[in-house]
Amino acid sequence: MTQEWKNRFLGFMEGTKTLPLTYDPFFKKLFNPDIYPERLSSLISSIIGTKVTVQCILSNEDSMLPSTSLLLLDILVQLEDGSIANVEIQKIPYAFPGERMSCYSSDLMLRQYTRVKSLKGNAFTYKDLKTVYTIVMFENSPNECKETQSADIYLHHGKTVFDTGIKLNLLQEFYVVALDVFRESKYAKDINELNAWLSLLTAQSVDDLAALVSDYPWMEAICKDMSEYMYDPEEVITMFSEALRMLDENTVHYMIDELQKERDDAITALNEKENEMTLVISEKDAEIATVLSEKNAMISEIAALKAQLAALNK
Fold first, then answer.
1. What value, to the nearest 5°, has the Cα angle with vertex 107 and ends 105 and 110?
2. Could you give the C-alpha distances from 210 to 9, 183, 204, 207, in angstroms and in order?
3. How far from each other are the two terminal CA atoms of the chain, in whole angstroms?
4. Quick count: other Cβ atoms within 10 Å of Cβ 80?
5. Is 9 within 8 Å of 240 (Cβ atoms)?
6. d(Cα 74, Cα 91) in Å, to the nearest integer?
7. What predicted TM-score, i.e. pTM, was given to this entire model?
8. Half-sphere exposure of 159 toward its Cβ, with a 13 Å CA cutoff?
9. How many angstroms separate the CA atoms of 208 and 18, rounded?
10. Under DSSP, is residue 189 helix (H, G, I), strand (E, B) or coil?
11. How far is CA 63 from CA 25, 39, 44, 253, 256, in A?
12. pLDDT tens digit string along 2-39?
């Protein structure tokens, strides 16, 4: 365990620090829908702006996409109306660009189609499919989230619309939550349900939790559940170890991905140089061939002139 994690663990056991809820093992302990069904429902509802109820957690094993690097949390749930919501927390923005977000949403849509069509059989119609919500939270958000026009905005919503205004029920929606922007935003002090949950996820100390409960008394239950783990140090060590294992594993994958990219870029650069050299050599060969041709033509002309001179001297 690194010194940073040791300090966080000791701080929690001493009653000064919180559990890092943006990491998978901790989040799933306190937001487990089988034990606390209202918590995850409330969090997702506050993000998408519509009251929803989490029905069950879905398996991610049949995903067609590889796990993204430096993923801190990944939870896939089915809502009461059949919609699917995926919540991910990424450590850095480069591991989850918009292009991958599109692929991930399409993967979820296809998996829903396969599952629902299998259940409905011949009675299936595309009207049976429900909205897929892709929710990505960033500990360190992309630069796009920090530009002047959005410097204080920490929740971004996107979906496909038509510029002519026609209304078609397209089923993919995206939400980006910038946790680092939230910490610094002037709007973070506004009292609302979304800010309550984001304040909990970004809390570092018990003082943060005290301020949270002061503003949102209904948060006391989850803070109390967190504090009770102080009396079960073995369980806390297990959670920290699992979070660290996942982080180390994902860091290795990230480093391998980056090294692979550097290798591919180097090969591409080398190939480009080889192509440039081949082109230069071809141009030089052509120049040499032209010079030789001109030289041969001159030799022929000189020979012809010599022949003419010889004929005149007879």
1. 110
2. 19, 16, 11, 5
3. 105
4. 12
5. yes
6. 12
7. 0.73
8. 15
9. 9
10. helix
11. 21, 26, 21, 18, 21
12. 777 788 888 888 889 998 888 888 888 898 888 888 99
Say how many CA atoms lie within 13 Å of 221 toward its Cβ: 6
d(Cα 66, Cα 257) in Å, to the nearest integer? 12
Nearest to 159 by CA among 149, 145, 169, 146: 169
The length of the chain, given as a count of residues: 314
- The predicted-structure confidence for 184-238, as pLDDT tens digits, reads as follows 888 888 999 999 999 999 999 999 999 999 999 999 999 999 988 888 888 888 8
292-309 burial by CB neighbour count: b if 16+ within 10 A, else e?
A: eeeeeeeeeeeeeeeeee
Quick one: which of 199, 192, 162 has its CA closest to 177? 199
Decide if 19 contacts 226 (C-beta within 8 A). yes
User: Which tokens is 86 given?
Assistant: 């995926």
Residue 89 DSSP class: E
Q: Are 172 and 122 in contact (CB under 8 A)?
A: no
pLDDT, one tens digit per residue, over 40-99 is 999 999 999 988 888 877 776 656 555 554 455 677 888 888 888 888 877 666 556 788
The answer to whether 39 touches 222, Cβ cutoff 8 Å, is yes
| Diameter of the chain measured on Cα atoms | 125
Residues 6+ apart with CB under 8 A from 138: 89, 90, 92, 93, 96, 145, 176, 177, 178, 179, 180
Contact between residue 117 and residue 129 where contact means Cβ atoms under 8 Å apart: no
* 3-class DSSP state of 152: coil
Phi and psi, residue 234, nearest 5°: -65, -40
Q: How far is CA 272 from CA 267, 276, 314, in A?
A: 8, 6, 63
Please answer whether residues 66 and 115 qualify as being in contact, where contact means their C-beta atoms are separated by less than 8 angstroms.
Answer: no
